[in-house]
């Protein structure tokens, strides 16, 4: 079994007006839905909006994706990938 | 005594700023998200805040700790919903209300700094139309009474108690369904429902200390007047708004007179609101610094900056037209069923709807 090569799309939305993070992320998820679902793309969102760590994960999870949130130096990285089958 | 009051208000503001930053307490989002994402969580949280504050204000009134209706609340007018509508549009475009702008600005957000500049510009703009608007507001006056219980000639408890019971029933159901809980991965996150309880207590603390709930926008008008007076002092001296002194009462607890208005001078309004503003800025900045999250990102799309200024200007203008901001009406007026506040909130909903449409179309 070989691993599928995965591209990365980075969205740097730090400093933007609220609720830009959520709206922009949803737009990108919808625009790249097939590639994300196929597991050939992972979406990396950089944001300094603390509330986005609470709004993006549940919305994106409900669309069938896996989400992880990491704290970096002064901002958060939200990684959206294909949901792993159990 | 003055320094004691100022320091206490600064402490109240600091606690509020800290709590709001940790919980991402967004009053603008409460209305905006209803239309943008079909989410009502923050509105439920806001209801919790109002329900907790209601009996506390009533207890304070009955104990003679402060006067209800609070000073600065006037009779309801047909212009109040229009102020609410414009305010609703402004807060959505600015990405935060008058207090949200403060705590986000203190955490390093450029768009909030620009919205704050807009708030001052809007306040200054209102000073130019004040005589005309005040006349319109007087013509549209609906009642000589200030609160709904006064209008119906009923004891406030008779109206507040059934409302509180219904609200408690709803809140209990929402609590059981997990609808008051906010999932978050942010470090040091405070649940918004806990923040609502803190803010309810802080609103009451403000009423105890200065005889009024938390409010900031008359000080914005004052600040705008002070800045304007640096360049065109003659013009500022002739503006009718800056000569008014709507605050004129004796605090029942401390027995000290408090007088003041939006004019560019140090008076009762400056004492009540400047320390609160400084406290919110300080509390939020401390929270962001402690979490290592204080950062300034200047690379923001120019259209977001422009719309943040437009939103701030609309808020500054409408906060004087309303004639107060959302924090004053939601945390101070709604729990005492002030007519102005009920009408203002009625205008906030269509305003937030319109703002959300503009946000999607032009800003993001």
Task: Report a brief summary of the structure.
By secondary structure, chain A is an alpha+beta fold. Chain A is 34% helix and 31% strand. Chain B is mainly alpha-helical and 364 residues long.
Which characteristics define this entry?
heterodimer; A: about 90 residues; four-stranded mixed sheet; 3 helices; about 35% helix; B: mainly alpha; two-stranded antiparallel ribbon; globular
The oligomeric state is: heterodimer
Biggest chain pair contact, residues each?
A-B, 25 and 40 residues
Helix content of chain A: 25-40%
**Strand elements of chain A, count:** 4
Outline of chain B: globular
Q: Given the C-alpha coordinates, what overall shape of chain A results?
A: globular
Distance between the termini of chain B: 49 Å
What is the structural class of chain B?
mainly alpha
Helices and strands of chain A, in order, run as EHHEHEE
Radius of gyration of chain A: 13 Å
User: Can you list the strand order of the major beta sheet of chain A?
Assistant: 1-2-4-3
Major sheet summary line of chain B? 2 strands, antiparallel
Distance between the termini of chain A: 17 Å
Mean pLDDT of chain A: 89
């Amino acid at each position: 079994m070989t691993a599928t090569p995965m591209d990365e799309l980075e969205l740097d939305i730090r400093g933007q007006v609220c609720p830009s993070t959520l709206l922009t992320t949803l737009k990108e998820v919808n625009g790249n839905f097939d590639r994300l679902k196929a597991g050939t793309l992972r979406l990396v969102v950089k944001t300094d909006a603390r509330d986005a760590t609470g709004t993006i994960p549940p919305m994106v999870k409900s669309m069938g994706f896996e989400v992880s949130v990491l704290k970096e130096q002064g901002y958060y990285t939200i990684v959206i990938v294909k949901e792993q089958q159990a | 005594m003055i320094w004691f009051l100022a320091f206490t208000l600064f402490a109240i503001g600091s606690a509020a700023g800290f709590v709001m930053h940790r919980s991402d307490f967004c009053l603008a989002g409460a209305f905006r998200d209803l239309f943008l994402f079909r989410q009502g969580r923050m509105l439920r949280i806001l209801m919790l805040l109002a329900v907790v504050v209601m009996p506390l204000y009533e207890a304070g009134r009955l104990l003679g700790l402060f006067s209800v209706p609070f000073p600065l609340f006037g009779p309801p007018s047909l212009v109040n919903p229009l102020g609410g509508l414009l305010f609703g549009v402004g807060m959505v475009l600015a990405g935060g209300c008058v207090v949200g702008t403060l705590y986000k600005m203190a955490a390093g957000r450029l768009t909030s700094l620009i919205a704050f500049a807009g708030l001052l510009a809007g306040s200054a703009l209102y000073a130019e139309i004040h005589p005309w608007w005040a006349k319109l507001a007087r013509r549209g006056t609906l009642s000589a009474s200030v609160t709904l219980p006064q209008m119906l000639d009923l004891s406030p408890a008779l109206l507040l108690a059934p409302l509180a019971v219904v609200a408690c029933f709803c809140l209990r159901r929402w609590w059981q369904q997990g609808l008051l809980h906010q999932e978050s991965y942010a470090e040091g996150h405070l649940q918004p429902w806990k923040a609502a309880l803190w803010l309810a207590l802080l609103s009451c603390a403000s009423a105890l200390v200065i005889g009024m709930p938390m409010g900031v926008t008359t000080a914005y008008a004052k600040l705008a007047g002070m800045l304007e007076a640096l360049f065109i002092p003659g013009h500022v001296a002739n503006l009718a708004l800056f000569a008014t002194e709507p605050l004129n009462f004796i605090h029942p607890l401390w027995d000290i007179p408090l007088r003041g208005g939006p004019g560019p001078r140090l008076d009762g309004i400056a004492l009540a609101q400047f320390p609160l503003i400084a406290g919110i800025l300080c509390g939020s900045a401390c929270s962001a610094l402690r979490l290592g999250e204080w950062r300034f990102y200047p690379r923001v799309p120019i259209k977001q900056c422009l719309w943040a200024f437009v939103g701030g200007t609309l808020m500054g203008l409408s906060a004087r037209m309303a004639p107060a901001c959302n924090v004053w009406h939601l945390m101070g007026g709604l729990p005492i069923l002030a007519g102005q506040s009920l009408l203002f909130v009625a205008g906030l909903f269509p305003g937030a709807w319109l703002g959300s449409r503009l946000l999607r179309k032009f800003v993001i």
